[in-house]
Every structure is written in structure tokens, then in C-alpha cells.
Amino acid sequence: MHKPITLRVINALDRKSALALAVFLALTLFAVPLLHLMVPPESAWHVSAYAITLFGKIMCYAVVAVAMDLIWGYGGILSLGHGLFFALGGYAFGMYLMRQIGRDGSYQSDLPDFMVFLDWKELPWYWSGSDSLWWVAALVVVIPALIAFVFGYFAFRSRIKGVYFSIITQALTYAAMLLFFRNETGFGGNNGFTDFKRILGYSITSPYTRLVLFGLSALMLAATLIFARALVRSKYGRVLTAIRDAESRVMFIGYNPLWYKLFVWTLSAVLCAIAGALYVPQVGIINPSEMSTANSIEIAIWVAVGGRGTLIGPVIGAFVVNLAKSWFTVSFPEYWLFFLGLLFILVTLLLPHGLLGLWKKLRQSRGVRA
Amino acid sequence: MSTREFFRKVIGIDPEQCAPTYRSTYPGQQKTLDISHNVILYLEDITVSFDGFKALNKLTLAIDAGELRCIIGPNGAGKTTMMDVITGKTRPDSGSAFFGQSIDLTRLTEPEIAHAGIGRKFQKPTIFEQHSVFQNLELAMKTDKRVCRSLCARLANEERDAVADTLRQIRLGGEAGRPAGLLSHGQKQWLEIGMLLVQQPKLLLLDEPVAGMTDDETMRTAELFVSLAGKHSLVVVEHDMAFIKELGGKVSVLHEGSVLAEGDLDSVQNDQRVIEVYLGR
């Protein structure tokens, strides 16, 4: 009766999605590395290190967008604090990267530079074990999951919903940002972690490391999409959207919304944290500004622009907005926030289902004419 | 001072009142429904007040097992509040509400009460508009409704058959694949009734089930309810006298939060007090 979960996940993919996924993986895992390493930089076909880092970064953002869509698009819970979980994952992995610097820092000490600067003599207790990749990988998952679980438990148990929930999540990430700004917190204060040298002993700036991180981000994005798809198509997913549309009816037919919301909320936080952990070695820095409220709002904008309640929509949104951002912040840096605000207003007013909704509408109207 | 006391004394809000907590275990599940005294629902001296206004005022009402009871009363008489108390949405200020002999409804949450065997239809049809008619019934179906089960739940053949049977019963067999939001108002009412049926409750609470239905649909609903009585107990809140006549059960008249009169429809309709507050106007 019960098929193994892997088989079910594969069955959940129709041929078109499977093909799209195969093309995506072929591009990111084979074509891009070849074009980066084999093609000389002068050629038009060469993929630059800048492009790889940029797209690697955006793929991490896309994972966050899908995670956001699971709770917002499918669960109807708008979090404006998801940047917190992303940053926590980043900080946890950043601890490992700081330890990997070893004695190569400016002070040639075993301690990270900022601790030497603060005149600390030994690592704080919560840094113990941070030189082990496995321990840190566990932290990346467990800490955000724990925080999300405890916060979510009390929020959902008290039936905090809608805009009240959004405001509380916003306050949560803001409070965390203030905490991480403090030097005494032990995470590098407002400079955060940077100047990473190695990962697993390999130089972090080598093209191979860069490609491996890029490939891992692509795999993570693909895995997130497949998993999210299986989830929203399960009975669990149907209960989740039912809670979004008519929570009281769900309760009166005997489901307890608390655990349904808490599951997807915690899962979403973990996905963000893993994305954050992949993001930090690629961009080479993590600081408390990742927890700023604006960052978390931006995540919601990616999802809204792409189209919430679909899985590919948020991915498209993350790519479109971030590519626009990287172009804008170079060409007209002072106008980016205005553009972002305008984009959000336009999408909310004109494209309630995002770019994907627009695309579907266009296809439908063409289908009618043909 | 506990947090709760702090809120109650300093801010004047009792957090437990605003936010009844969800509970993880289902005490109602373990306790089996005890109807040895032939009473399935017993409300005694229930009082609920909102800002000083007594929505329910020492309401006492007993429903027998297998009974079909109609509740009538002018607007604001407390009919919907009574259903809220029975289903755990509103906690009474005082009084007791028992399901059978042993299940104390005032201590259970909404999902727990649903599991104990009480199904509720809302005044305004409340269905999952984005889901298909079939999926609406699938979600309502009596089964283990914990997260871990839902993650890998598959419909068994018997369950599929049960949904198909219910679809026939509520005459939506042809609409199984349509999004429920596209149904007509009357069909939505039927779908919600169908969702109650697949839940297999012992007691059905139906708040204005035929509002917005055509006469034909209303009569068919009456037939359905009469056929359900005996196996299930039904409490029907309605204004439609023709429908109530068709159901033929005992009628309770609610007025200002308590029962004004009780009996068959004819005796109630001839009661002088009832005529004064309700029917005569």
C-alpha cells in the first residue's frame, strides 16, 4: 500500500517538469562549469566568476522564495521575518568558515580576529565544535528549526494571524539584528564574519570551490522544488490550503491547525537556513544587516512578483527582482529602493497572481483567439 | 502575579477568553460517547455574555439520542451562540455542556469536539472554494487527522466509495471534479452537509441549512434529514416554517438567550408567549 517516499516523489513529477528539471541540472552542473573552466575569458561563451557567484547567490534566494511561498502562498501565513532564519543559517556556517581561517587572520591567532580585537582569551562556549563541518551543518538546521518551532508554537497556539503575525515576525528579526549588532554577542558585531579563506581546507576563492558551491546551490534548489511539489500535492498540502481559505471549517472537521501550521513554518525556516548556509561562502560575508526588516520584506516581494501559490513563480520572482537589483545598484544605486517599492505597488495592483499569472492569462487569451 | 492575572487585572483582558488554546491530545477521542440515559446533548444553565449583553441566559436544553430537534427564535435569540458553545468556539461564563454522560464540551477544543462526534454546518456555507468537490469531502472524511498521517495519506478504495456514495446522496455526482467555489449557493449548502455526513458525526448541528435553497431543494433536504434521524441526532436552526413542518420533530423556541417554549410545532405555534415575541410579528 505504502510506496517508498522516493518513488512517490519521482511519480509526483510530470514529464514537462521532469524535463525542465533535467535541463536546469544539466546547465548548472555541466554546462556552466565547462564554460567557466574550459572556455578562455576572451570568448563570448565564457562564464565569468562574477556571473557564477551572482547566479549561485540568486539560487539561494530562490530557495528562500520557495520556502516563503510554502507558508504564504499555500498556508496564508505572511512572515516578514524570514531573513532571520536565512541569516541564522548563514551565521552558523560562518562560524565554521571563521574557524577555517586558522592562524591566517590579521592577528595570527587561533581565535577569530574580532575576538582578539575584543581581547577575548578563549572561544565562548557556543563556539565549541564549530571547527567541525558536521557539527556546524547540524547547527544550521537545528538552531533555526528550534527558534521557529518555539516561536511558531506560541504564536499559532494563541491564534495570532494575518497582519499581527507579520508584525511580530518583523519585530523578531529586528530584535535579533540588534542582538547581533552587539560585540558581546560573540558574532562579530556590526562587521559580522568575513575574510574567509578556506572551506574543508580548499581555498574559498578557487574556481573549483566556487563551482562546487554553485552546483550545491543548484541541487538544493532542485531538491527544494521537488520536495515542495510533493508536499503541496499531498493531503497535507490540501489541508494547508484549506486552513488558508477557511480555518474554522478545518477545525470543525477535526484538524488541529496548530500542528499543520507549525510543521510548514518550521520546514520553511529550515529551508531558509540551509539557503543561508550556502549563500555565505559564495558572497564571502555575513553581517547583521541580513536580518534587517527590509531584507525580509524583499523576500515577500520576490514571491509576490513571481506569483504566490505556485512553486515556479517564486523562483522566477527571485531571479527577476535580483537580476534587476544587481543591474540597478550598479547603474542607479540611489533609485533601487524606489524601484522596488514601485514594483511592489504595481504587482499588487495589476498582477495579483504575479508574473506567472500574467503568463497564464496571455496564454489563455491566445488560446481563445486561435 | 501570573501572566494571565496580569492581563486580567491590568489590561482588563483575560487571554484565555480571547485565545482559547489548542490542545495536542484529544481527550474526547479516548472517551466513548455514553448515551445510556438516552440523552446525547445536555446543556444546563449556560450563560454567555458579550460586554454585558447576555447572548445566552441560563439556557437549559437536552437532546435525545436519535432525535431531530428544531430550534427557532427571533434574531439575537442566541441560536448561533448556542452552537458556538457546543462546538467549543465560545466558552460559557457559567453552566455545563455535556455530550452524552461523560464528555465535558467546555473543556475541549474545536477539533477535539469534532473528533468526539459533533459536526457543524455554518449559517453561511463554509467550504473550501479552491478545492474540488471531491477533495472537500476527502478532507472532511472521518480518519486520523494528524499531520504525520496527512503527509502520506492515500485514499483507500472504501474511502473512495464512501465519497462517491455521499456525492450521490447530495446530488453532486456530476460536479466531483469542479472547484467548489463554482457551485451554486444551494449546491454549496449541500456540499457542506455532505462534508458533515462523511465525518460520520453522532450529532449534527445545522445552522440555517436551507437558506438560499429553492423550494425543491428545501424539500429534498428535509427528506435527507428525516432519513438521518434515528441513526444520528440532529439539531436544526431554521426560520423556514414549511421546512420545520416537513421535518416534524420537536421544536424549541429560543428567546433572549433561554428556552421560551418546547413541544411539537402546532403547540408551539399556538403558545401565546411565542406568538408575542416571534410568530405574531
How would you describe the overall organization of this protein?
- The complex is a heterodimer of chains A (370) and B (281).
- By secondary structure, chain A is mainly α.
- Chain A has one domain.
- Chain A is built from 15 helices and four strands.
- In chain A, the strands form two sheets. A two-stranded antiparallel sheet of chain A has the order 1-4. A two-stranded antiparallel sheet of chain A has the order 2-3.
- The radius of gyration of chain A is 21 Å and the shape is globular.
- Chain B has 13 helices and ten strands.
- In chain B, the strands form two sheets. In chain B, strands 6-7-8-3-9-10 form a six-stranded mixed sheet, with helices on both faces. A four-stranded antiparallel sheet of chain B has the order 2-1-4-5, covered by helices on one side.
- In chain B, α6 (133-140) packs parallel to α9 (185-198), α8 runs antiparallel to α9 and α10 packs parallel to α11.
- The radius of gyration of chain B is 20 Å and the shape is globular.
- Residues 17-29 of chain B have low confidence and may be disordered.
- The A-B interface holds A 1-2, 5, 8, 156-159, 231, 234-236, 238-239, 241-242, 245-246, 248-260, 263 and B 15, 19, 21-22, 24, 87, 89, 109-111, 114-115, 119-120, 122, 126-131, 135, 138-140, 142, 145-147, 150-154, 195, 199.
Would you summarize the structure shown here?
The complex is a heterodimer of chains A (370) and B (281). Chain A has 370 residues and is mostly helical. Helix content of chain A is 71%, strand content 2%.
